[in-house]
Amino acid sequence: MTLIGVPRETATDEHRVALVPKVVERLKALGLAVVVEGGAGGGALIPDGSYKEAGATIGDPWSAEIVVKVNPPTPREIGLLRRGSTVVGFLAPRTSPEIADELRRAGVTGLAMESVPRISRAQSMDALSSQANVAGYKAVLLAAERSTRFFPMLTTAAGTVKPATVLVLGVGVAGLQALATAKRLGARTTGFDVRPEVAEQVRSLGAQWLELGVEAAGDGGYARALTPEEQAEQQRRLAEAISGFDAVITTALVPGRPAPRLVTAEAVRRMRPGSVVVDLAGETGGNCELTVPGETVVRHDVTVCSPLNLPATMPEHASELYARNVAALLELTVADGEFKPDFSDEILAACRVTEDSDQLTETR
Fold first, then answer.
1. CATH top class, domain 134-312
2. Candidates 3.40.50.720, 3.40.50.150, 3.40.50.300, 3.40.190.10; CATH matching 3-115+332-359
3. 51 neighbors 61 (Cβ within 8 angstroms)
4. What is the pLDDT of residues 7-60, one digit of tens each?
5. Among 357, 316, 290, 234, which Cα is nearest to 22's?
6. What is the 8-class DSSP label of residue 265?
7. What is the spatial distance between Cα 27 and Cα 55, in angstroms, rounded to a whole number?
8. Nearest-CA neighbor of 168 among 147, 188, 146, 196?
9. What's the rounded Cα separation, in Å, for the pair 303 and 268?
10. Surface-to-core class of residue 361, CB atoms within 10 Å of its CB (0-12 exposed, 13-18 middle, 19+ buried)
11. Where is the Alanine dehydrogenase/pyridine nucleotide transhydrogenase NAD(H)-binding domain (predicted)?
C-alpha cells in the first residue's frame, strides 16, 4: 500500500495544507494510506483528530513514498525526502529551477502543480486556477475595505449614493472572479486585457469592456510581452482611463517574465483621493509603478495594496480546492493502491520537472 505524507507548511504566513480530511477519505478509497504531520492542518483550523477520523495517521510524513505540499520544499525538506520518493506541490520550475535540480540530485521525482497543462482532461487538477479564484475574490474585499466610498448604490433618506466603479486589468481566472465579486457587491465593473478574445467573457459577467486598441494575444491563453512602443501607447491610454475609476485591481502576468507595468505613477496621481489599487502581481514586481510588494502604501491620497499569497488568507476553502486538485492528479498515478505513474501520459509528462532541464515548464 502506497503511503502519502502531508507535512506542515513552514513558509511565512502560509496557512494552507495540501490535503484535507474529505480528500483523505477519497484517497483511502483508492487503497492509499495517508500520514499527516501533527499540526499540519492547524492554519486551516483542521485538528489532528479530523484527520484520524478520516483514516489518516499522525506521524512522520517525510518517509512516505509520495509527499504532497503546497509550497516548494526547502533545502532542508529536500534532505528529509527519501531517495526514490515523489514530491507533489507548487515547485516553481520556471522561477526557481534550482529546486528541481536539488530534487534530481536527491533522487526524488517532482510533480509541479503549476505545470498541469491547459487541456479539458486536466481541469480538475488545475491548482493555479483554483487558487487564482480565491485571490480574485479576496482582492475585491480588500479594495472595498480600503476604499473611502461604498461599492453598491445606496438610496437613503439623505439621498442616493452612486455605485463605485471598478476596473480589472488582466482578465484571467483571478480577473474574472474579481469582476464577478465586485458586481455582486454592487459596483459598476469594467475589464481590460490585451487579449481581445476575452471581451466576451467580461461582458458575460455584466461588466463593460475597456477598449484601448492594443492587442497582444499569445500562446497557451497568456498574453505575449508587448513591444516597447505598444507598452508606451497602452500606458498612455490606460493612464487616461484609470482616472475615472474608484478601484483598480491588477492581475496581469507573463510567465517567466516580470509583471507588465500597467498602472504608472502618473495614472495613480490622476485618480480621485480615496481610490484604491490592489496589485495581485506583486510577487513578480507588480503591475503598478508605485507597488511595494507585500505592503500597503498611500501615494497621492490613493491606497496601493500589494498582498502576497492571498489564497493563504482564506486557508479553509483554498486548502479544500487545492487538495481536490492534488487528489485528481494522484488518481492518474495509482493502480490497485500502488503508485504506478505512466509518464507517457501528457499530463504527468508536463508536470514532471526532474527530467532534463529543457523540460522544465510552467503552463500558466
1. alpha beta
2. 3.40.50.720
3. no
4. 999 999 999 999 999 999 999 999 999 999 999 999 999 999 999 999 999 999
5. 316
6. H
7. 10
8. 188
9. 9
10. middle
11. 144-306
